[in-house]
Amino acid sequence: MDGVGRRRDGSAGDADYGVIGEGYSDFRRPDPRIARMLRDALGDARTVLNVGAGAGGYEPADLEVTAVEPSASMRAQRPAGLGPAVDAVAESLPFADDSFDAAMTTFSVHQWADLEAGLAELRRVTRGPIAILTCDPDLLDRFWLAEYAPEVIETEGRRYPAIARLREGLGGRVDVAPVPIPLDCTDGFNEAYYGRPEMLLLPEARTACSAWSFVPAPRVEEAVADLRRAIDDGAWDARHGALRTQPSFLGSLMLVTAAV
């Protein structure tokens, strides 16, 4: 289909959300402070396309949103108040040129089989700004998880596209802003737990972060055991305890916004 390989549930990226997507929305709830930054980036748009929409997180309630999501598992987790998502992939959007005032995508570009094709499609169907919430692979080692599960960080580093590729693919004026991650962040990506290491001891929390699914199970068990031991014996707090009360963390999370 469209030259993009898809799994049984429709997942088009490297992660199989038919397997890991169950319960995703229990841990990946949009954080209102991050949502505010994303909403501001959309400006005065009225119609918005959300590509790789997942369970619908970060879709502005005050705008007319058209969601695109290839995974049936993720589409099924969209709340009743949101409209159904279109079954399609970023590289082949079923919309006419200039169909939307703005476009957005969150934690999705690293799943696209062809990044440049997906960005070109976003630009084709969008009249105005394009907002992308993603992570800068060059900044992933700011997070202490690299000490306990380096394979997870290495996996993320391979998957997330360089910011320079996003700039080039979007063209025109592109702004990149670091996104402060709140201590009580409700969106459970890995760095959201910078001050709550106990959360990454939970299998469900790790499953909601797709990078863990690429690490062999025995190595995951070893990493979790190492982290548990460091928490229990105080080693984690000796090195990183100040993070437990640090209001926010500037890690790899970035908001990339392309103007018209």
What does this structure look like?
This protein has 260 residues and is an alpha/beta fold. Helices cover 32% and strands 14% of the residues. The protein is built from eleven helices and eight strands. The strands form two sheets. Strands 2-1-3-4-8-5 form a six-stranded mixed β-sheet, sandwiched between helices. A two-stranded antiparallel ribbon has the order 6-7. The chain is globular and about 60 Å long.
DSSP strand count: 8
**Proportion of residues in β-strands:** 5-15%
Q: Runs with pLDDT <50, length 5+?
A: 16-21
Major sheet size, sense and barrel closure: 6 strands, mixed
**Average pLDDT number:** 91
Helix content: 25-40%
Choose one word for the global shape.
globular
Order of strands, main sheet, comes to 2-1-3-4-8-5
Using only C-alpha atoms, the radius of gyration works out to 18 Å
Tell me the distance between the termini.
30 Å
Structure summarized in a few sentences:
Helix content is 32%, strand content 14%.
Essential attributes:
about 260 residues, alpha/beta, 6-stranded mixed beta sheet, two-stranded antiparallel ribbon, about 15% strand, globular
